[in-house]
Amino acid sequence: MFMQSLRISVLMWITLTIIFGVAYPAITTLVAQTVFPRQSQGSLIVKDNHSIGSRLVGQNFADPKYFWGRLSATGPVPYNAAASSGSNLSIANKTFLKNAKVRIDALHAADPANKTAIPVDLVTASASGLDPHISLAAAEYQAARVARVRGMGYDTIKTLVGENTQGRQWGVFGEPVVNVLTLNLAIDEKAKIDAQGGATKTP
């Protein structure tokens, strides 16, 4: 009786291991890579055969010529994809207020002429610390600064913002958001094209 129960248990263990430890992962991986090849590989952005980031993970931009994303509370460095986390600090916490003030001061220093209210997502961290998006208001707040620092037309920057804006999910849920990494890459590419055009026109 004992040996029979043991045999059944071992067979069940082997069977379930094969089904859920081998077959299921293999099938789901195959389906994902076939139906959603880009997403299953992390939605990576590849340029000149090099991966420069993911559409799903933010990066730390501090140069005024770039749009800035949200603050990140991951450790030991911001936007650490291996340590996704939020600060879990309340809005009354001194550290929370200090971090927000540091970002506010940085935004004002980078664009002293901008007297409009700063969108809240530019001075607070997301729960994951990896948010790749900012609100449309946050992008519009920074558009004039980026245009000025880059020496590019404001309308050009606004057009690029629009091209990198994602609408509401299924047209209903959430608000439009702007992918910071793809926007900054698009601006770099536009600046490169403009520079090449200027060099071509030089006698």
Overview of the molecule:
- The protein has 203 residues and is mainly α.
- The chain folds into two domains: 1-41; 43-201, no CATH class.
- The protein has helices at 2-35, 37-40, 94-110, 136-150, 154-163, 180-201; strands spanning 44-47, 50-54, 133-135, 165-166, 177-179.
- It has a three-stranded antiparallel sheet. A two-stranded antiparallel ribbon has the order 1-2.
- β1 (44-47) and β2 form a beta hairpin.
- α4 crosses α5 (154-163).
- It is elongated.
- The model has no long low-confidence stretch (mean pLDDT 88).
Q: Tally the helices: what do you get?
A: 6
Rg calc = 24 Å
Output the helix-strand order.
Answer: HHEEHEHHEEH
Strand order of the largest sheet: 3-5-4
How many structural domains in the coordinates? 2
